[in-house]
Amino acid sequence: MHFALGFSIEFSVDEAHYALYAQHLAWSYFDHPPLVGWIQWPLVSLTSSEGLIRIVPELLWALSCLLVYQVTLELHHFIQGRNAGYLTSSLPSANICGLMAVLAIIAAPMPHVLAIGLLPDTLLAPLSLGLMYMALRWLIQDRFTLGDWIAIGILLGLAGLSKYTAVFTAFALLLVLLSARGKSSISQIGFWLALAIALILVSPVLYWNWANDWISFKYQIAHGSGGEWLWRRLGAFIGIQIVVFGPLLIMGSIIFLKDCMHVIKLSIVCLLGFFFIPFIIFASLSGGGSLPHWTTPAWFCLAPFAGIGLAKAWSVQHRFLIRAFFTLQVALCLVGFGFVLSGGISSALIKSNPIADLYGWKMAGQKAAELSQATKANGIAVQNWTLGSRAAWYAKPIPVFVLDQRKDQFDLWFGQLPQGANILLINWSGMTFSAPIGNKSSFERCEPLDSLEIQRFGQILSKFDFSLCSNWQGPSVAN
């Protein structure tokens, strides 16, 4: 299903943005660290096929599922090693627990989105699981080898190159290290070696931000704080999390906590920090606005606990609810896959069709490139950055300018829109704007050139309008 979707639909706004990272290699970028671009660079340099480029997130998803299985085996080993009496004797086999954990992830809808489209969270999921695996080894073993500390340093560094929120995972790891041996764990030379390796790996991000007035950190602080905090947003966030990650993970985790918390409380609490620390922080921020996929690495780290809980429930004949939830979640996934492939639903009863955003940009980008060259325009313009990513990817190498006063990655890539410039303006029906004329920051005039209607299976999804806007009168776009 991942391959079918990957070769059937065009890039989403974020996918195109991060593919442009790979096309414009740099030490870091305005909104995220660079690994999401670096890892795609070999394929992006060879092909523009969405399906081939999407092999990267598909392999990362498969790796994450494998790590869920391995972490569950290690967690099972840890519990057995604590000689937990009734709990140990009633615990199903490690293989069954591991397979149940993977089953819970496979049945969750949201991970499939990140398995098809590469986002920083797609990278952070296997790296978080890798750090959780090392945390369990720390709890089980009497000591760490030099190789173990080096592995932790590399994992931490790669996580930092993936997303700034990796700091939450690092804090969870630190809690586990301190819970087992206290301050002695951070007094070891290996700990400081791991920290040094991590800092060396993330040094490109620090250097780039230092050279660019720390714009990435300033943006992330403002972005994370969101807008006005509202309780209804928190409620919506929780509800959406339950739907997109599914009740199986929640059910299995509750069963695990009920049976295990009283036996090995401190260790389990610290390990659960890999889920609860990022989840609670994102939930607290959701009142001001947040995106549901931000918690994906945390849910992957919860899956091993859920797998053991589901295996225990299955072993005592509590199978109806597991079957029901699994069937419901898989049906939801299949409906979602079909919805995307069909192009969604367009009707007067629905304000907008979110699936329409995945179709038509390739044709629009090619037409924009042709019109831009024919009119000898200085480039292409859009009026929101979310429209700029697809325009820049599908019309490459023509520069794309975003007509707002917000500084962003496009300003770093394409520079400032010069005074007196003539631009080909793209207006998309899914996010329409008035023509940028009639005020101080505008063009002298905009003349319609052409339009493009996007259809799929006989239904109209969207429409692109192309205009030639002449003589830019406003200030430089990057102000």
Topology of this protein?
Blueprint: H1 2-6, H2 13-23, H3 35-38, H4 41-46, H5 50-53, H6 55-81, H7 86-89, H8 94-106, H9 109-116, H10 120-140, H11 146-162, H12 166-181, H13 189-211, H14 215-225, H15 231-245, H16 247-260, H17 265-285, H18 296-315, H19 320-342, H20 361-374, E1 380-382, H21 385-394, E2 400-402, H22 409-414, E3 423-428, E4 443-456, E5 459-472
Parallel strand pairs: 1-2, 1-3
Antiparallel strand pairs: 3-5, 4-5
Helix pairs in contact: 2-21, 6-8, 6-9, 6-10, 6-18, 8-18, 10-11, 10-12, 10-18, 11-13, 12-17, 16-18, 17-18, 20-21
Can you describe what's shown?
The protein has helices at 2-6, 13-23, 35-38, 41-46, 50-53, 55-81, 86-89, 94-106, 109-116, 120-140, 146-162, 166-181, 189-211, 215-225, 231-245, 247-260, 265-285, 296-315, 320-342, 361-374, 385-394, 409-414, and strands spanning 380-382, 400-402, 423-428, 443-456, 459-472. 61% of the residues lie in helices and 8% in strands. The chain has 22 helices and five strands. The chain has 479 residues and is an alpha/beta fold. The chain folds into two domains: 2-339, no CATH class; 356-472. A five-stranded mixed sheet has the order 2-1-3-5-4. Helix 6 packs across helix 9, helix 8 packs across helix 18 and helix 12 runs antiparallel to helix 17 (265-285).
